[in-house]
Hints:
Strand 2, helix 5 and strand 3 form a beta-alpha-beta unit. By secondary structure, the protein is mostly helical. It has helices at 2-10, 39-48, 54-61, 72-83, 104-115, 135-138, 151-162, 166-176, 180-187, 192-209, 212-223, 227-247, 259-268, 277-292, 297-313, and strands at 15-18, 92-97, 121-126. 26% of the residues are buried. The protein has 15 helices and three strands.
Amino acid sequence: PVAGASVSLFNNPDLHFTFPTIKLPSMGSDHKPVSDDFAREWREMLADGHYFTMDRWMTAMGAENQQAIITAGESDELTRKLSLKSSRGGYKVSIIWLPERMNIECANKMLKLIEEPPSHTVFIMVCDEPDKLLETIRSRTQRIDMRRIDEASMRQALAERRGLSADDAARTARMADGDWIKALELLSADSESRLFLDMFRTLMRLAYMRNVKELKKWSDTMQSLGREKQKRFLEYFLRMARENFMYNFRNPDLIYMTREEEEFARNFARFINEANILPICDLVNRAIRDIGQNANGKIVFFDMALQMIVLLIRKS
């Protein structure tokens, strides 16, 4: 009954969803993608569960190597929809998921819509990175921060809802850091984190062996992931570099790793030290910036891999 009520609510004609989209090869050259192009995929994902990531949404849309954005066409379409009368004589609600992904043309049009909204209209913006929104948009909204789940509540929920032992629930809760979606991903058999750990291990082993030929193949593999996944891997890389550095202090309270990650750290952590941790983080942050600016992924990752050979040699 609850799921049915949710589906009915999501189909309410006065509820309008806006979210990042991609341009599919089947779309015309002049077509600006809008949320309605992926309405079926969106409803199916909401019906399947309310906890999801951008990666899952990209997969649902059939994305390959694109970056999802909210286009100017979407702001035009939303303006048109909200100009219509409410079907039931009440409020119209616009829910915008990840508005920080609006391109500048869309953001400027959306600003005008927010400044002069149709009567009886409510805008709800759900942000991951609110600071990336135009300041003029932020200044016209009321910010409500959704706080992270405290560790004790997370442990209890994992034990009760997922049947985890006390030890596994505690470890997962620490790793999730208050993020329920991350906790569910850590429990998934095909977790992205497991894939990223394998890529991290491969890179570090090849860099240690100075195997340039295989590092080139590794960078080719990274290129095939698509930009969104590449950026998530680099964020994972940063976390693993920091965790391996902290592992050297031998203080369990400072370590936030899965059992598999900790097993690798036992032998690898000594290669991350005071002499190279900051240069490694700088290198990866530059790669994140370059990928975000549409640089060639193969070149970015191969350059990063070659520099990692030199950095791993540094001793404290």
